[in-house]
Design goal:
35% of the residues lie in helices and 28% in strands. The chain is α/β, with parallel strands linked by helices and 318 residues long. It has one domain: Ribokinase (UDP-N-acetylmuramoyl-L-alanine:D-glutamate ligase). Helix 6 crosses helix 7 and helix 8 packs antiparallel against helix 9. The longest helix has 15 residues.
């Protein structure tokens, strides 16, 4: 088995370009001690609020926490939330020169009402999910091509919020192929045909079932489903994340299963972001697909023990 610590040692010398749907995770936190007389809902007494990077921005934050240099290409609105998003990216040490302003959309924000015991009461989503077109799409493609020229890997983080169109995905994959660097994709089912030629696609088991119309009831079903995902998407390799059942890696030369390593589960929010961030950075650092999957599996086991969209450090992985 490869020395995984040697791979971790190379993380800090890699640059990863993230292209995808960024969002702000807004937490409104308070205490609950009564039910509203107006409706059968809890009354949350406000204590504080927090803003965290979500979506593709959380992927970028995971990469940064692991030690990589990170650039991001995404869409934001011409609004206060877009300004805050750029500020939070800068604070996290993530290059935001590739964030394109689209005045026709709002910056994606998810506001969660949460109790002091980390119980979610409600969520309000502010978003525009129309795909980028015209001059905005051209600006995204130009930024992706420019920043891919200095990257060790490209990561497409698709949340169906408009940044990833067929043309934008193809441009990212072509830019990576021209430089011989890996390109990984955290996919969405309606865009299954957008990612042809990518090095690796990482659907969860629900997405894999929806893409293939096959069921995964156990390890015995995983190889056929993963192989079919590879056929449908046209990607070179497939990693299906299966929650408490671990992960399944399918390559043209064989399959490998990885049992889940979580010791305690507090919140699975953003776990997929951690998986693809670790996978991509490991591949950029020269790891094999199997070793990259092994590291990603361990990273997932750490991050689900934390609340909200969280990150894992190389020290924690060691």
């Amino acid at each position: 088995m490869t020395d995984l610590s040697a791979i971790l040692d190379r993380f800090h010398s890699q640059t990863v370009l993230v292209v995808g749907d960024v969002m702000l995770d807004h937490f409104v936190i308070g205490s609950v001690d009564r039910i509203s007389p107006e409706a059968p809902v809890p009354v949350v007494r406000f204590t504080r609020e927090e803003f965290r990077l979500g979506g593709a921005a959380n992927v970028a934050a995971n990469l940064r926490a692991l030690g990589a240099r990170v650039e991001i290409v995404a869409l934001a609105g011409a609004d206060a939330e877009g300004d805050r998003l750029r500020l939070e990216l800068t604070r996290a040490g993530i290059g935001e020169a590739g964030v394109v302003t689209d005045p026709t959309r709002c910056t994606t924000r998810k506001t969660r009402i949460v109790t002091s015991r980390n119980q979610q009461v409600a969520r309000v989503d502010y978003e525009t999910d129309d795909e980028a077109r015209g001059e905005v799409a051209d600006a995204v493609i130009a930024a992706a091509r420019r920043l891919a020229a200095q990257a060790s890997a490209v990561l497409i983080s698709d949340y169906l919020k408009g940044t990833i169109s067929r043309e934008i995905a193809a441009a990212c994959i072509e830019a990576a192929a021209a430089r011989g660097i890996p390109v990984t994709v955290d996919p969405k089912v309606p865009h299954a045909g957008y990612y042809r030629g990518a090095t690796l696609v990482t659907p969860n088991h629900h997405e894999a079932e929806a893409i293939t119309h096959l069921r995964i009831r156990g390890d015995a079903d995983a190889p056929a489903c993963a192989a079919r995902v590879r056929e449908v998407t046209g990607c070179q390799n497939v990693l299906i994340t299966r929650g408490e059942h671990g992960m399944w890696l399918h390559t043209p030369t064989g399959d490998s299963g990885f049992p889940a390593e979580a010791r305690e589960v507090a919140d699975v929010t953003g776990a997929g972001d951690t998986v693809i961030a670790t996978l991509t950075l490991a591949l950029a650092a020269g790891a094999s697909l199997e070793d990259a999957a092994r590291l990603a599996n361990r990273a997932a086991g750490v991050v689900v023990g934390k609340f909200g969209p969280a990150t894992v450090t190389a020290t924690e992985l060691r």
